[in-house]
Specification:
The chain is mainly β. The chain has a domain at 223-253 and 262-290. 7% of the residues lie in helices and 36% in strands. The protein starts with 5 loop residues before the first helix and ends in a 39-residue tail after the last strand.
């Protein structure tokens, strides 16, 4: 029997086909236009924990921050081999493996955590957290609890954040039970801990998972500014630059170059007492107090997890942390010279000495010891000798420690190197003749710049380094102290057979990349498209300065 659909239905189907064809055409034009787009300036969040190994060491997970992806590599005897790429949130800055098949990714701009199923290469759940989350670790019984740092604000945070109220911490730790995420769309946290600090960042867990440490990124050092004319009129220190010469070569009358009246830096001592750089005391001049709480110890086995200890005076800017197998916590940080008021020659001055790079050593009992990474620098010199520069490490962004707790690896973002430090020497007092001394021979230079993350592969004697400037992974031999390969984690490589007009991101931090080897762990994924295939990595060894 023949069924007559009628002219109306036939017309509707034709219209639908036309509509589908038009949509397909528009999508094609949009894709072509995107592929023809030129270079653009890209702003992205800084890496926090951008690289991690699976528990069995067979897979390496890397955050592709500018492209919003998690890149997955197989770890083999010959190096890294790309196996997959998963679209996650915007600006993924930290990754942690819950198991060999499940990975959690912190999305800094999306204010979310993506839970990735590794075998299927897809996101199975998205958890919503506070503003600008930065790090994640698993701890607690069976390491079943996920700890995530975030700012004490944001559309996903329940309740009133009391942004205009004093005495309220600006750091939160969101805690999720991985076995019971809740029925809500964005998940339901088991606990939401508030910490008295500003801008939380790094997390670290003890080997047994019983304690989690949370660090404040912009911690400060109990300093503030007193407005002009609110202190003694003759308050120094004054300008120390040499008196300039007039056009005739004669010294200018100093009285015609008065030092301007500026704000005065004060540092809190006890209670309401503050002191300036000349040791003058001010009582009641500042209407608030500034506790210097830097690192917080959380009992991950408590129900619910709770704050049990606070560490003060760890540093001004705290980048990252690692816990050694013997329970010692190492914190990479810088300490700001806020009490030095002027640049120039003489003392005090800030010329080349704004911050000091350090490693702070925290014991489970609560003690804090600080060690300078660059104690060899003579800051009285306007230009440091080449040997001094070579032995220096700048901006210590991440840490890794050997399984026997004897060696600490430091990612020096500003130096483009990996520092190797003997932990026994680091623990000695700085005045001890056997104490840690900076040495260029203990550095591993990288061909790619901006090391921002470390993952130590003890089984293969390798150190995987996330390099931000080229969005890649450098494979380092820590024993030979050489950079063996630079394998792009995804990069913005054009798809196979495509034109060279694929958009490329121009970072504000970009600098020329020196190629040390030929590697092919690139992806055929182009920004803005959905098709992704990773070609197998083939790394050939090379020798660089050790």
């Amino acid at each position: 029997m023949t069924y007559d659909r009628g002219p109306g239905r036939a017309f509707g189907e034709k219209a639908l086909r036309r509509f589908v064809a038009v949509v397909a055409l528009l999508c094609s034009l949009a894709a072509a236009r995107a592929s023809a787009q030129g270079s653009y300036t890209l702003f992205e969040a800084g890496p926090v924990r951008p690289i991690a190994l699976s528990p069995d060491g067979s897979l390496l997970f890397v955050c592709n921050i500018p492209d919003g992806r998690l890149e997955i590599f197989a770890v083999g005897p010959t190096g890294l081999h790309g196996v997959g790429s998963v679209q996650v949130g915007v600006e993924p800055v930290a990754v942690a493996a819950r198991s060999n098949s499940e990975v959690w990714v912190v999305n800094h701009l999306s204010d979310s955590v993506s839970i990735v199923d590794v075998p299927s290469l897809r996101v199975t759940r998205t958890l919503l957290v506070g503003d600008e989350p930065r790090d994640i670790v698993f701890a607690g019984p069976g390491r079943g609890l996920a700890f995530v740092t975030a700012a004490h604000r944001g559309q996903n945070r329940p309740g009133d954040p009391q942004l205009q109220s004093g005495g309220v911490g600006r750091s939160d730790v969101w805690i999720f039970d991985s076995a019971n995420l809740g029925a809500a769309l964005g998940g339901t946290p088991l606990e939401l801990l508030n910490l008295f600090g500003d801008t939380p960042r790094a997390l670290a867990a003890t080997p047994d998972g019983s304690t989690v440490y949370a660090a404040v990124f912009h911690s400060g050092n109990q300093t503030t500014a007193l407005p002009p004319n609110q202190g003694p009129s003759a308050l120094g220190p004054f300008q120390t630059l040499p008196t300039p010469l007039d056009p005739n070569g004669r010294p200018v009358d100093p009285t015609t170059l008065p030092t301007p009246i500026v704000a005065v830096m004060l540092q809190q001592q006890l209670g309401a007492t503050w002191k300036d750089a000349n040791n003058n005391s001010y009582t009641g001049a500042v209407p608030f107090t500034l506790p210097d709480h830097d690192v917080f110890a959380l009992d991950a086995t408590a129900s619910p997890p709770a704050l049990v200890r606070t560490y003060d005076h760890v540093g001004t800017i705290l980048f990252n942390m690692v816990v050694s197998p013997n329970g010692i916590l190492y914190v990479s940080n810088t300490d700001a010279n806020n009490m030095d008021r002027f640049e120039g020659f003489g003392t005090p001055n800030l010329r080349g000495e704004l911050h000091k790079a350090r490693i702070s050593i925290l014991s489970p009992g609560g003690s804090v010891s600080t060690r300078l990474l660059n104690k060899h620098i003579d800051y009285s010199l306007a230009v440091a000798p080449a040997a001094t520069n070579a032995a220096s490490l700048g901006i210590p962004t991440d840490l890794a420690i050997s399984a026997d707790a004897t060696t600490l690896y430091v990612a020096a973002f500003g130096s483009g190197e990996i520092g190797i430090i003997d932990t026994a020497k680091l623990a000695l007092p700085p005045t001890d003749p056997n104490a840690f001394t900076p040495n260029a021979a203990d550095h591993i230079p990288l061909s790619a710049g901006g090391p921002g993350g470390l993952a130590l592969d003890s089984a293969h004697d390798r150190l995987y380094v996330y390099t931000r400037f080229d969005d890649g992974v450098s494979v380092v031999d820590p024993l030979a102290r050489t950079c063996a390969c630079t394998a792009p984690s995804r990069l913005r490589s054009p798809p196979a057979g495509s034109s060279s007009t694929t958009p490329t991101a121009r970072r504000r931090t970009a600098r020329p990349r020196a190629a040390c080897v030929t590697c092919s762990a690139t992806s055929t994924h182009s920004p803005g498209t959905s098709a992704t295939r990773l070609r197998a990595a083939r790394c050939c060894s090379t020798t660089t300065r050790s």
